[in-house]
Design goal:
The chain is an alpha+beta fold. It has helices at residues 36-45, 61-74, and strands spanning 4-11, 17-23, 50-58.
């Protein structure tokens, strides 16, 4: 049984990304993220202009936190020209 997943939400208009974690045993098709800057982007561009994909399934909280940080760094999601992440995550 999985503990949660790491996802990437992409703005289909400007290409910016958000990396996040979601603790759930089932895939929530409506959930696209909850970051502060991401929520502002939803208001500006419309939530329908964002797509979300699963990057990694996780089986423990340590995996969830570790992989969130890993993907934020790897994909440079804290660079404001690339992404919406404000922190490294992993909490």
């Amino acid at each position: 049984m999985k503990y949660g997943y790491i996802y990437k939400t992409t703005n289909l208009i400007n290409g910016k990304i958000y990396i996040g974690q979601h603790k759930a045993t089932e895939f929530d098709t409506k959930y696209k993220g909850s970051g502060v800057v991401l929520k502002e982007a939803f208001k500006k561009y419309g939530k329908e202009n964002f797509k979300r994909e699963i990057l990694r399934l996780c089986f423990t909280i340590n995996q969830l936190n570790g992989y969130e940080t890993y993907y934020i760094i790897k994909l440079k999601a804290m660079d404001s020209s690339i992404g919406y992440n404000m922190m490294l995550g992993g909490v």
